[in-house]
């Protein structure tokens, strides 16, 4: 767990991601809109115990999470949102993600479409797609649909479509939490093309986000980059 001013980053890892290990930067902010902790994204299903251990190391319990912001419907972001809702948290997501969170579509990816971008063997590709297809995903009900422009605990909601239709990022003038609209693996890049709903819009959103006057940019996958 890393503490940066008023935010904390809980780093979880996803082994077996196209031959590598993908990290997940779950952000937690104190004093969420409902008074407890505000969590931004929640990692894959079945990671709730790990999240709880992080929170307990910081003196909190899962029940202290009062608000959960989901940047987009993908399972590595929304995977534990439903469980947290059962414990009392309110769920926030863009209005365009509401239906996808309730009944997510299946990923349709062919090896030939991605082998150059991913540089992955066919075997590793197949095992990753299999694993993702069999995740036990609990559908998520959104309590507070967003349009963009709202302010949650000092963070303005930015609608940055492209990776998905209703992808959002959060910016408080200092910390920029990008979800998958910016990827930080090695360097800051746009999201992977084959996982994006509209790649041209994803490129526009990437340019908009990376030109903001942030001090710290927190991509969900990859490295946190500071301008200190
Ligand atoms: Zn995603
Ligand atoms: Zn992701």
Structure description:
By secondary structure, this protein is an alpha/beta fold. The protein has a 7-stranded mixed β-sheet with strand order 1-2-3-4-5-6-7. Strands 8-9-10-11-12-13 form a 6-stranded mixed β-sheet, with no helix packed on it. The longest helix is centred in the middle third of the chain and has 12 residues, at 122-133. It has helices at residues 48-57, 75-78, 81-86, 98-102, 111-118, 122-133, 199-210, and strands at 2-4, 7-17, 20-29, 37-40, 65-69, 90-94, 144-146, 151-152, 155-159, 168-171, 175-179, 216-219, 225-226.
- If you consult CATH, what is the topology? Metallo-beta-lactamase, Chain A
Q: Report the order of strands and helices.
A: EEEEHEHHEHHHEEEEEHEE
Distance between the termini: 20 Å
In one word, what is the shape?
A: globular
β-strand number: 13
Bound compounds: zinc ion
Please give the CATH architecture.
4-Layer Sandwich
Radius of gyration: 16 Å
The level 1 CATH classification is Alpha Beta
Number of helices: 7
CATH level-four homologous superfamily name: Ribonuclease Z/Hydroxyacylglutathione hydrolase-like
Strand line-up across the major sheet: 1-2-3-4-5-6-7
User: How large a portion of the residues is in β-strands, by DSSP E?
Assistant: 25-35%
Low-confidence stretches: none
Quick structural gist:
By secondary structure, the protein is an alpha/beta fold.
Notable characteristics:
7-stranded mixed sheet, single chain, Metallo-beta-lactamase, Chain A, binds zinc ion
